[in-house]
Amino acid sequence: MKRIACILCALVVSIPAAFGQRTVVNPAKPASPRAGRVVRLKEVSRITDQAGKYFFRETWDIKADADGSLFVLEPNAFYEFDPAGKFVKNHFRKGEGPGEFSAGITDFFLGNGEIVLFSSNVRKIVRLKSDGTRIADIRPLGFSAFGFLGIRDGRSYVLAREPGKYERKTGVFEDPLTIRTIDAQGGETGSGSLPAVFPFTIAFRVNERGSSSMYISRLLTAADPGRTRYVYFCHTPEYSVKRLDLENPADVLEIKRPYDRVGMKMSRELPYPAPKYHNDICRLLVHEGRLWVVTSTIDPAKGILVDVFDENGRYEDAFYLQLKGILTKDRFTYYALLAVSGGFLYAVEVDDEGTLSIAKYAF
Question: How distant is the alpha carbon of residue 189 from its chain centre?
Answer without folding.
Answer: 25
